């Protein structure tokens, strides 16, 4: 009798919640379809990288791995890509804002699955992994190096490896030790004084550095999570069991996520991101320069000499659809930032583009209150969560915790 009363109470609770949380078999066909769309099994193969003909060359990937961890690719000899993109922290750093030679204005994004990105960085100011990889190298707060120094470093340390992949190195003996169009005043002056063919030769080596690093980063794929095992069982028409089973609270959170919380509007697909930019009313971080997000990223990606349409890209113009047909209205993108993937999200606080929000609980409160944007127009519509609803949503997000990042096949 006691057991029967307990079962009846559980059933009544599920009915009151209107969630059927106690039986995943009660999921609707629409819910099952949404769950399937978020599963890692829906990810599909690596997309092509038309601007980088070495993108899937194993030799380039191995070279890129070595460069990724090489502190010699910095002006101080103390910073590598792995300084901010730490493999032990989902290839990010857990800091509010990245710190290389100095602190930057933005949070470090994780790299697993970045090969599927349409745009790179929070503001989309680069349109490929290889163009993205070049940008921190010359940023004075990140790697603080310069273009000719990097080309000469490759010639001095990696000449044999480079030439096996990319062909003969140019003669760099007459180039300045330190010169760049983006460096110090002296470096810019020396760059301007170089002959056009010297600048072109340096740019080619520099571009190939980015292409090698990108080839390595393409091997970093999202990993299977508890949610993926749950989703696989659901898609197969089975009741999830063992380490695939969800608690009642986790299932409630999942149904909120794909339902009334409207999370799918931006966090959709198997990487739980739409790869686009949204103003969500996040307040600027105190003490930082004005940051207009995608509104400035639009011009930056168009003017990047290493973009898909640039002379060092391996793509035909027809293959550069994202760049050719992107939205160019800066005012509509004011304070809009790239939707981050939610895979592994519970393990990498703080949140938002400059680490403004400390916890998942505070993130949910932000989306619940839907504050107006400082400028531009916030897209967020407030959603009222009960305390249990907040707990449920967080419980679901924890099922997306990343396991070890794996190399893709």
Write the layout of secondary structure elements.
Layout: H1 2-17, H2 29-38, H3 58-68, H4 81-84, H5 129-138, H6 147-157, H7 159-166, H8 185-193, H9 196-217, E1 220-221, H10 226-235, H11 248-258, E2 277-278, H12 294-303, H13 321-324, E3 337-338, H14 360-369, H15 387-398, E4 406-407
Antiparallel strand pairs: 1-4, 2-3
Helix pairs in contact: 2-10, 3-9, 5-9, 6-9, 11-15
Give an overview in words.
By secondary structure, the chain is an all-alpha fold. It contains 15 helices and four strands. The strands form two sheets. It has a two-stranded antiparallel sheet with strand order 1-4. Strands 2-3 form a two-stranded antiparallel sheet. α2 packs across α10 and α5 crosses α9. The chain is globular. The termini are far apart. The relative contact order is 0.16. Mean pLDDT is 93; it is low at 1-22 and 404-409.
């Amino acid at each position: 009798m006691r057991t029967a009363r307990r079962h009846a109470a559980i059933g009544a609770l599920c009915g009151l919640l209107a969630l059927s949380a106690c039986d995943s078999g009660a999921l609707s066909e629409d819910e099952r379809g949404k769950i399937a769309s978020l599963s890692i099994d829906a990810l599909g193969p690596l997309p092509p990288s038309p601007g980088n003909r070495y993108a899937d060359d194993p030799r380039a990937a191995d070279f890129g791995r070595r460069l990724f961890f090489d502190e010699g690719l910095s002006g101080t000899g103390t910073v590598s890509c792995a300084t901010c993109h730490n493999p032990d922290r989902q290839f990010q750093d857990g800091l509010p804002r990245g710190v290389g030679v100095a602190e930057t204005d933005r949070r470090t994004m994780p790299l697993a699955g970045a090969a599927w990105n349409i745009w790179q960085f929070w503001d989309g100011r680069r349109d490929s992994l290889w163009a993205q990889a070049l940008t921190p190298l010359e940023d004075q707060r990140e790697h603080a190096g310069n273009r000719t120094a990097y080309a000469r470093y490759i010639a001095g340390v990696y000449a044999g490896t480079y030439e096996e992949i990319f062909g003969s190195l140019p003669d760099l003996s007459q180039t300045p030790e330190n010169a760049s169009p983006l460096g110090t005043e002296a470096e810019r002056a020396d760059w301007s004084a170089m002959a056009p063919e010297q600048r072109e030769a340096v740019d080619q080596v520099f571009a190939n550095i980015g292409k090698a690093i990108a080839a390595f980063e393409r091997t970093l794929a999202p990993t299977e999570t508890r949610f993926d095992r749950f989703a696989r069982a659901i898609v197969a028409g089975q009741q999830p069991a063992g380490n695939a089973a969800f608690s009642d609270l986790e299932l409630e959170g999942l149904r909120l996520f794909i339902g009334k919380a409207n999370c799918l509007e931006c966090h959709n697909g198997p990487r739980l991101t739409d790869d686009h930019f949204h103003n969500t009313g996040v307040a600027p971080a105190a003490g930082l320069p004005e940051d207009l997000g995608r509104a400035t990223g639009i011009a930056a990606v168009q003017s990047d000499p290493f973009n898909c349409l640039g002379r060092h890209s391996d793509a035909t113009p027809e293959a550069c659809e994202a760049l050719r047909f992107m939205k160019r209205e800066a005012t509509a993108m004011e304070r809009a930032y790239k939707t981050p993937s939610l895979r592994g999200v519970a393990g990498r606080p703080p949140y938002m583009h400059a680490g403004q929000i400390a916890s998942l609980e505070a993130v949910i409160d932000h989306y619940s209150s839907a504050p107006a944007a400082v400028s531009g127009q916030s897209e967020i519509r407030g959603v009222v969560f009960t305390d249990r609803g907040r707990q449920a949503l967080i419980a679901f997000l924890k099922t997306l915790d990343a396991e070890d990042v794996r190399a893709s096949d």
